[in-house]
Amino acid sequence: MPLQVSTESPSAIAQSLESSSSKPSFLVVYASHVDGRSWCGDCREAEPLVDAKFADRADDVKVVYAGQKDEWRQAENPWKQAPFSVTNLPTLIKVTGNASKWERLVEEDVYNQKKLDAFVGPKTKQEQRL
């Protein structure tokens, strides 16, 4: 099942990620779609792999769109601001340790299966049984 896009504000998403428990939380930031397709080639490559990676996992994952090209290029784009600090699309953010550690997988690394697997981690035994 494809991941669901969050309609929460950036501040609400930041608060949610920062209040995560001992289990990692993830945020996927993609370029917005035009006519049903992302304007970002790297995002188009990444979406099916990211969807498949999280399909049967119990992880907390939020997906957001950073906007059309003109919105994305603006310095005040909320996803470019702290704590997200996204510089390139797509970006997969992992928050662990009660928000003390923010890690990022960026651009072509997001759709590199080995790097994606290493970043997200293996499925738990419980997830493997599902």
UniProtKB/TrEMBL annotation:
Residues 19-119 form the Thioredoxin domain. One of its GO terms (molecular function) is protein-disulfide reductase [NAD(P)H] activity. It comes from the Eukaryota. Residues 9-23 have a biased composition (Low complexity). Residues 1-23 are annotated as: Disordered. GO terms for cellular component: cytosol. Belongs to the thioredoxin family. This is Thioredoxin-like protein Clot.
